[in-house]
From TrEMBL:
UniProt-listed PROSITE patterns: AA_TRNA_LIGASE_II
SUPFAM superfamilies reported for this sequence: Class II aaRS ABD-related (SSF52954), Class II aaRS and biotin synthetases (SSF55681)
Gene: PARS2
UniProt signal peptide: none
Protein family: Belongs to the class-II aminoacyl-tRNA synthetase family.
One annotated Gene Ontology cellular component of this protein: mitochondrial matrix
Subcellular location: Mitochondrion matrix
Catalytic activity: tRNA(Pro) + L-proline + ATP = L-prolyl-tRNA(Pro) + AMP + diphosphate
Name of the protein in question: Probable proline--tRNA ligase, mitochondrial
Record bears the keyword ATP-binding: yes
Domain Aminoacyl-transfer RNA synthetases class-II family profile: 13-276
Alphabetical list of Pfam families matching this protein: HGTP_anticodon, tRNA-synt_2b
PANTHER family attached to this UniProt entry: MITOCHONDRIAL RIBOSOME PROTEIN L39/PROLYL-TRNA LIGASE FAMILY MEMBER (PTHR42753), PROLINE--TRNA LIGASE, MITOCHONDRIAL-RELATED (PTHR42753:SF10)
Matching InterPro entries: aa-tRNA-synt_IIb, aa-tRNA-synth_II, aa-tRNA-synth_II/BPL/LPL, Anticodon-bd, Anticodon-bd_dom_sf, Pro-tRNA-ligase_IIa, Pro-tRNA_synthetase, ProRS_core_prok
Amino acid sequence: MYKHVITANLQVRVIDQEMQAIGGQKLDMPSLCSAHLWKTSERWDLMGKELFRLKDRHGAEYCLGPTHEEAVTTLVAHQTTLSYRQLPLLLYQVTRKFRDEPKPKFGLLRGREFYMKDMYSFDADEAAARRTYDSVCRAYAALFARLGLRCVQVQADTGNIGGKLSHEFQLPADVGEDRLLVCGRCSFAANVETLPAGGADCPRCGGAAALAESKGIEVGHTFYLGEKYSRVFGAAFSNAQNKPAVAQMGCYGLGVTRILAAAVEVLSTEDGIRWPGLLAPYQVCVLPPKKGSKVDDAAAVAEELVRALGEAGPNMRGEVVLDDRTHMTIGKRLKDAAGLGYPYVVVVGGGALEDTPRFEVICQETSETTFLSKDALLDLLGRVETV
């Protein structure tokens, strides 16, 4: 559980970097949402049983927010001095969401409570809103690239959120619940639910029988909403003619906990967990020799190596852990390290006591083992990206 908290916090830092790079402003919105807002948008009944509903002691109705279109649009609507010069406005949060799933399963992949990043954009016109939409999609692509995850952007249904345009971001995986159709001749990809039944020809390039079906795990979803919420709640701004105009909206979600679970699913092997490098709880695990072994003197070298690695640069600070369970064999601790998913494992053995000390370095991602000097090891790990 502690490890999941660390990796989730690291992921939020990566998300913050990508969202703020495109102008995102972070805020917090309440998890407890007034039924009045949801009834105003007509989603109180539309959401059905998935919405967690409750009443306070006075009988007023509320829900636990699965998404926050109503709340954020109301917030913007109360900014009565908003000018077109202040647009686009991109507001986002990373917080707990709630959805009364009929059959929660796959641990973090589908639960009733989960962490999500949701962003909401407000633009002056449709052209600007679509540019913002595209910029967020590019930021999502950059995020998944940094995580080392192959993600496919597919055409999707707008569902109960609504709007004119929607895309899902899918990690291809056999355990995925979504069926995808991907063209082998162009960049077209879609969730199968958006295409006519039985259609195998690509609607974009016209390629005959060009669509291949696969499965995926949805980890992100974007929507161009237009005026669906802004008109209902009165989210307006003063345009260039100093006249009130209704804002054009978009909303964009990322499943924070779902990305963690999906990444482990698609990257791991039977031998152990594989985290995206940026999300690993620690980058390096150093294994000193077993106490009482012939090379027990190398234990002091291991402790010095941990200190040197931690001071090698700002990217390694707090990223190195010493497995000091020296009553256990190296083999047992290597197995544990593979199960925990450290990107790099450094074994301090007899080679560390040579005139030119050498260390056994195991890269978990490639399963390659190399023997490096201290300087070469510092150089290798100094180039590792961290957040």
